[in-house]
Amino acid sequence: MAGGTPPERSAVTVRLPVEVARGIEARIQGTGFRSVEEFVTFVLARLLESPTGEGFSEEDERKLRERLRSLGYID
């Protein structure tokens, strides 16, 4: 629906730590993402597109943990 308001969709609420939300807000500045919600929805939808439905490989998980640690999201 070009130029209009997107149609209503069913949704659920997910709570994020404030630090994570702020990190996402900083990360999406200057991108096409208009909100934390839009970014998180995009990332999770991409994750679900995995053709095997198995999610991350051990190597993918290791890389993700390293990235999250370098960003200060996990210890």
Span between termini: 43 Å
Order of helices and strands: HHH
- The secondary-structure class comes to mainly alpha
Number of strands: 0
Characterize the main sheet: none
Please give the share of residues in helix.
40-55%
Describe the protein's topology.
Layout: H1 18-28, H2 36-48, H3 58-70
Describe the structure.
The protein has 75 residues and is an all-alpha fold. The chain has a domain at 29-70. It contains three helices and no strands.
Short description:
The chain is mainly alpha-helical and 75 residues long.
Comma- or semicolon-separated keywords:
75 residues, globular, mainly alpha, 49% helix
